[in-house]
Structure prediction request, 468 residues.
Amino acid sequence: MSKPIFELINELPTSGTTVMSLKALDYIVPGEWQNISGFENMITLVTGESDQAMIQQIGERAITLYNDPAEGYQRAVWLYQTANSIGGKLGAAALANKIGESVSFLSFLEKITPKADKAQAIDFSIKVAAEIIAYAKINGIPGDGVAEFMGAVGDYGKESIMRLAALTCFDGLIPLGPDFLRKIEEFISGLVPHDLTSNPAFSAVSSMIPGGGAEGQLGFVQQGFNSIKGWMGNFVSSKGITAEGVVGSLKNFIEISDDKLDYVAGFLDATTNYFDYTGVQTVGRRLIERAVAEI
Amino acid sequence: MTKHFFRTALLACAVIVSLTSCSKEDPRWSEADKKSKEAIEAKKQAQESGALPKPEEGGSFNKFFPKNEAGYDMIASQEKTGFAEYKLKKDGKELAMIAISDVANNPQAADKFKSSTKKIGGFPAVDQGSTATAVLVGGRFQVKVLSRDASFTKANREAWLQKVNLSGLAAMK
Prediction:
């Protein structure tokens, strides 16, 4: 089994490129994401509880819920971790985040190879599929009927909405440009099952994607993208998000001396793990919300 | 040369220390982690042998939540085996969480009601910490309201507990 949940949350770095890049997106979803690290901190923050005996009980119940494989929380963390690591990560990225130093953009420039648009489109839609599956693993299918379920999904907030903001900006808008949704749709609708099976991102998470074979799984990935594109298009336009705006904000937090967007995208892909980071936070929050209700 | 070697070695040590310090054991939770694995196995066996009832489906609790209170929104939040939770909002602001859980998932949760001195809706009730009030329905289902905003008081929690269809839930047993 992977690490226990308290360790995963305790080990979330409080500085480094991932944290800085998420801070740079705060202007898009103001106040939603907090740089919470530390299991006890998270319990206090989520529940508002300061009673130590209560915190102990909540923590113990959350640990037990996470450790029970039948509950699905572990699979969700695995999905977030695996879908995150599929980009062409540079070896130093993890180290850079752990020792809490920012990574110089220039020092990475020569190592960055911008991803081809098609590969970027596939990675994007696999992250969307992973998000949908992880949601169901964490929350079940809550509510009586479709309307209540749509209400539940529409209630994305905190680190979950930040993850979608980062997906929009770092995996869509910056690498693919303002018409990224149309581009992704074109690539995705034209895929054949072999395109997926030969993609390392897909291979890594395929055991968790429903569909009973590559063709059905491709259908799931395509439907997943179709289900999010309307929301995302509206998110971008209603908030007036532009690649230039995002890069401008990033420059307040990370040393970026080049405006070539596909290099910025490559740099972020190599040096950040926002999907994993916010995914662990989401799982932690939901576990704690359930634990405090069940004790 | 030697100086340079020492400097490099020192730097390497510093990096190793900073990395390992990130993943040190947390004594407050390590023990709970070990115990939980035994508890999960014991619960599984007890449920298979019939010593412990199998928890009800979370979806079967949905109809007991108060969903038609004017001015408030109830948003489905989690639904797992033996558990359903809704978020209570007003004007977009999160006020509280309301949850129904089957204590078959966590039998010791029922223990605290043994010393209960008050009743809500005719069922034994307790306060927990500074944010939670709960009732135990039919000895089997825990209904809990958790404040998520300072304006949502203990009196509010008690009032919302009574808006849950407690008698309907008791009849489900």
Observations:
- The mean pLDDT of chain B is 88.
